Amino acid sequence: MTNSSTPVPAPMPNEIPGVAIPPGQVAAATGKLDELARALRERTGIPGMAVAVVLENQKVFAQGYGVCNNQDKHSAEVNEDTVFQLASVSKSIGATVVAHEVGAQRVAWNDRVTQYLPWFKLSDAWVSTQLTLADLYAHRSGLPDHGGDDLEELGYDRAQILERLRYLPLHPFRSTYQYTNFGVTAAAEAVATAAGVDWATLSEKVLYRPLQMDRTSSRHADFMKRGNRAHGHIRHDGAYVPRYQRQPDAQSPAGGVSSSVNDMAKWLAVLIENGALRGAPFIPAAALLPAITPRIVSRAATSPNARADTYGYGFNVNVQASGRTDFNHSGAFGLGAGTAFAVIPSARVGIVVLTNAAPIGAAEALIAEFMELVQFGRISRDWFAAYQPLFAPYAERAGTLVDRQPPENAAPSRAPGAYQGAYGNPYFGDAHVVEGQSGLELVLGPKAMRFAMRHWDGDRYVIDMHGENYEEGSVSAIDFKFEDGETAAALMVELLDTNGLGTFVRR
User: Fold this and answer.
1) CA separation for the pair 448, 428 (Å, rounded)
2) What is the pLDDT at residue 6?
3) What DSSP character marks residue 251?
4) What are phi and psi of 291, to 5 degrees?
5) Residues with Cβ < 8 Å from 261, sequence gap 6 or more?
């Protein structure tokens, strides 16, 4: 607390908001939150949701809604201690772990990654030598959007994925924003190496234990051991069902944290207090500041009237219509998690919303409603309707042949032996075409995932693919290429060709 005799410095001109918040308006907004949350859950059908609000350094609201598993008649109801998978909200939590280590002078944001991971390379040798922790946490390394996620889908572990990032084509270094889970993961691995422990242990040691976040972990096994945990749900045949379990350990620093809103409230309080913990220094403000302030434009303004979106280190950073800055992040697992938080530092208020359903913009809509009530005392629009189109791509099936049938005059395939054999790819590894119980199968990845192949036309086959990156019903073409021989020289997997690396050459 500031001593009454200590003069409070006047705010700088660029710190003055355009709209004042009258006394009692934050409390009034909080008082409406339960009604808003219940209405949103009723509207969306989301099985479970939990919400918490922190004002200054105090939790002023925490409530759970719905159930952990809507297919289990004995399922517990969600409460403020229910543990959810956070998905990409993990990036912001991880950034505070890094900020702690920066404050302890074990690393610096601008340290080069190869200082700690000398083996780490990208496809440009010069970029590899210049790349910093900050570049990766700001998504400005040049790695393509979600680069490496396709390897995780096939079962590669963290070390294998980070080693293979060197094969990905790059965008211009430090001048383009491309969101990458495994770029952030590489930076976190460097910090953990500097600390001499694994990332999950480091996070527990320097953040979760000091904040008494007893239900928070960066290990999937810990999440699965929780009795009070939210099961992920997806939309299937018009209803939410818990069909899959996301295992995100490979990208744990970017998407593998699990936590409750009670624990998240403790973390929000540290952010609101600019790095202080229960009034005492914890993360130096100077170490935290680069993470929660703009470092790159993440979405350019589309008109002279529009505000651009920016990104710090693991945090989205925006300017509200009130003129107040905020920092925030969303998290999304297509297999069943939609999460978000936001902080308006000038109002010293933060909110977190966790859901156990595939992302549809519900968490973001509730936050937008609350933050409008905080700043303006009213809700200006239907925020859920506004967010739905932005989240629609998560539910879209991938592949150019979705909902199509083979041509009526399809050319016959060759004999199975023409396609069978081993094929290689430096990024994806080996692919094998083998005879299965009902025909040809494509075998991919270190876990030998098998995909039944259906003939389409001539030397084209198709396979069904679904997982975190491919919605149920996604279809990938498999095109075999022949040269002069009787056996295929190569095959191309459509859904693995996003970065032009989907061709496997016969060994």
Assistant:
1) 12
2) 59
3) G
4) -70, -35
5) 50, 51, 52, 62, 64, 80, 82, 352, 354
Amino acid, single-letter form, for residue 323:
G
How many whole angstroms separate alpha carbon 106 and alpha carbon 112?
Answer: 13
Positive or negative torsion for Cα 134, 140, 146, 150: negative
Residues 453-500: tens digit of each pLDDT? 999 999 999 999 999 999 999 999 999 999 988 999 999 999 999 999
Type and span of the H or E element at 133: helix 133-137
Q: Provide the token pair at 507.
A: 């060994």
- HSE, side-chain direction, 13 A CA sphere, residue 437: 2
Please spell the DSSP secondary structure of 408-463, one letter per residue.
TTPPPP--GGGT-EEEE-TTT--EEEEEETTEEEEEETTTTEEEE-EEEETTEEEE
pTM of the model: 0.96
What are the residues facing 311 on neighbouring strands? 296, 316
* CA separation for the pair 12, 5 (Å, rounded): 21
- Contact in structure between 387 and 364 (CB atoms under 8 Å): yes
* Element (DSSP H or E) covering residue 188: helix 181-195
64-71 long-range Cβ contacts below 8 angstroms, 24+ apart? 64/261, 65/37, 65/38, 65/41, 66/41, 68/228, 68/229, 68/230, 68/231, 68/356, 69/230, 69/231, 69/242, 70/233, 70/240, 70/241, 70/242, 71/241, 71/242
Q: How far apart are CA 143 and CA 305, in angstroms?
A: 31
Q: pLDDT tens-digit profile of 19-41?
A: 999 999 999 999 999 999 999 99
- Per-residue pLDDT of 227-249, as tens digits, reads 999 999 999 988 999 999 999 99
Hunting for tokens 């030998």 — which residue is that?
A: 448
Q: Distance between CA 129 and CA 121 in Å, rounded? A: 8
For the chain, the maximum distance between any two Cα atoms, rounded to a whole number of angstroms, is: 89
